[in-house]
Amino acid sequence: PRAPAGMGAVPEPCPQAPLAVLSKVELRVSCKHLLDRDTLNKSDPCVLLLMQSQGQWMEVDRSEVIKSNLNPVFAKIFTVDYYFEEVQKLRFEVYDSHGHAGVGTHDDDFLGGMECTVGQIVAQKRVTKPLFLKYGKFAGKSTITIISEEISGNNGYVELAFRAKKLDDKDLFSKSDPFLEIYRIDDDRSEQLVYRTEVVKNNLSPVWEPFKVSLNSLCSCEEKRKLRGVVWDYDSRGKHDFIGEFFTTFEEMQKAMGENKVQWDCMNPKYKIKKRNYKNSGVVVLLDLKIHRVYSFLDYIMGGCQIHFTVAIDFTASNGDPRNSCSLHYINPYQPNEYLKALVAVGEICQDYDSDKKFSALGFGARIPPKYEVSHDFAINFNPDNDECEGIQGVVESYQSCLPKIQLYGPTNVAPIITKVARVAADEERTKEASQYFILLILTDGVVTDMADTREAIVRASYLPMSIIIVGVGNADFTDMQILDGDDGVLRSPKGEPVLRDIVQFVPFREFKNASPTALAKCVLAEVPKQVVEYYSYKAFPP
Residue limits of the VWFA domain (predicted)? Predict the structure, then answer.
């Protein structure tokens, strides 16, 4: 992306990190207690999904219209491309639709809206929020629920083809108009609509169109999870007639691979009690099933992997006296310095994936109170027992309050901090859960003094659940730092042992000075998802 003319040349972000779409996320939407805008019957809701692009809200997609229903569960699955390294803002708007005119965007048809980010939905998996009308007014008790599921690299999916035979006839003057719904039954016994087929008109032995669903959405990737199929006779007023149901599992469905077919009796429990020789209300047949599998970054995030974020700040004397406006650590009330800019840009992305929103913040290369001895891994909140700060804001405040208390010194040793975080990551790994992945952001103004120890520490760390991001602040010569970023060849320890996986990303901040904070975050975080997947693949941990 080039800068518009007149802004000064902005470098192409990260030539080595093409912005791959890592994954696609499926969003399912349902609403409760919608406002009733229609006088004669209930509202006919439809949901619009908008995404923010360069400050403008653009409509991306919209759901089907559900007739006269104030508690709709939409069958439409919204698919959004997911980028870990960006804040992606979403807005959902619910409207009462009026048949032919399509969805009006008039105020009187607006049933409410809600905003959130893709990262929030992904990290929480299920988000329920109130709907708001214009000017921040609540839309009565209306709520919207978004459930997210990820399609692994667009591959972890299954293709199904269903038909039915000899269904009960529910219509007086014509045959039933059947459609099929598949539900997944969750651990709390609630049912998630996985798919709703099209309606086949006037046909008691319908063949429905084949469809694809992700394995995650069909059965949460658990073959024995119970599934419920329901066949309905369509009614245009929204009062569909129940024909029958059947229960199955993905394990059982898989018998339909190849030449085989699997079939179920479609049962109406009421008829079963009432009618003595009731056999069924028809049969449902699974004609064919095909599967594709692969794991991705989001599998791990959604499997409960937490990202733990640590920032390490260089307090060596080469930064210049913080009281002097030329210093890289100068606190300007009107303009954050480069350290703060880099910290906030990267930290804001990471905080969506860290459930406790507590970040470890460390400093190195300064003399610290009370004895003013040089330390290469001190907590900037000066609490040796707990170096965590509350959110990015907490880190910023600790940074600003620690500057006057310390004396900038040297040398620039980063191995102690890498080793410190690696120790925590190793303890985490021993729990076998490996549910935490550590990102260490090192902000430094110069060339590392302890290069041999740093290389050794990085090789050790490459076996652990961690990634290291180094942002070079200021105008020093960072040639040596490029060696640590294994993009030009494999990084080796002083003894010649190679890293198990490339875990370091180095970026000079000056290349992004005129670019937006999001460009910096994109560049430094673009490699992380790949590094997470590589780590878990080496360990053979499924999500």
Answer: 308-507
Q: Which two tokens stand for residue 535?
A: 């780590």
Radius of gyration (C-alpha) of the chain in whole angstroms: 28
Residue that has been written with the tokens 């490029």 in this structure: 482
Residue bearing the bigger pLDDT, 369 or 299: 369
Q: What share of the chain is helix, strand, coil (3-state, %, to 5)?
A: 25, 35, 40
User: Are residues 317 and 213 both part of a single domain?
Assistant: no
Measure the CA–CA gap between 198 and 210, rounded to whole angstroms: 10
Structure tokens at 457: 């520490």
The CB-side HSE value for 186 (13 A sphere, CA atoms) comes to 9
CB atoms within 10 A of CB 101: 9
Q: pLDDT value at position 433?
A: 63
Q: Do the Cβ atoms of 164 and 231 come closer than 8 Å? A: yes
Token digits for 406? 């310390």
DSSP per position, 84-97: TTS--EEEEEEEE-
Closest CA to 58 of 77, 80, 34, 25: 80
End-to-end Cα spacing for the chain: 34
pTM, 2 dp: 0.57
What does the alpha-carbon distance between residue 233 and residue 171 come to, in Å, rounded to a whole number?
A: 8
Q: Rounded to whole angstroms, how far apart are CA atoms 398 and 421?
A: 19
Instruction: For 259-298, write each residue's pLDDT tens digit.
Output: 778 999 999 999 988 888 899 999 999 999 988 666 677 7
**489 in the same domain as 360:** yes
Number of separate domains in the chain = 3
Beta strand 23-32 with 73-82 is antiparallel
Mean pLDDT confidence for 341-361 = 86
The neighbour count for residue 447, using CB atoms within 10 Å, is 15
**29-72 pLDDT, tens per residue?**
999 999 987 777 788 899 999 999 888 999 888 999 988 889 99
Q: What DSSP letter does each residue of 63-75 carry, written as one string?
A: ----SS-SS-EEE
Q: Looking at the domain assignment, is residue 231 inside a domain?
A: yes
Is 337 domain-assigned?
yes
